[in-house]
Amino acid sequence: MLLEALSSVILGLGLAWAATRRLPHRLPARALVLSTGVAGALLGAFLTQSALDAGNLLTALFGAAIVSVASLSLLLRPAGRLRGRSATA
């Protein structure tokens, strides 16, 4: 269990670091991104462990990666200005 948690933290940090290196202009502060990646990975590993009751480390890491990426994607801002037309014009 401790190995799963530690592996999930490392995976979450790695994914968050990769996101900050790849998309720095579309993400908020680095500390928020790193903590969100770690929290998402821990939550994903916990959910996978609870739902599947699997003792397999790879299954827990797969769930951790999915939830971590999903939570990091919620932090993304739009790339440019929105080009929608105004209804009042």
Automatic annotation (TrEMBL):
Keywords: Membrane, Transmembrane, Transmembrane helix. The chain crosses the membrane at residues 28-47, 54-76. This is Integral membrane protein.
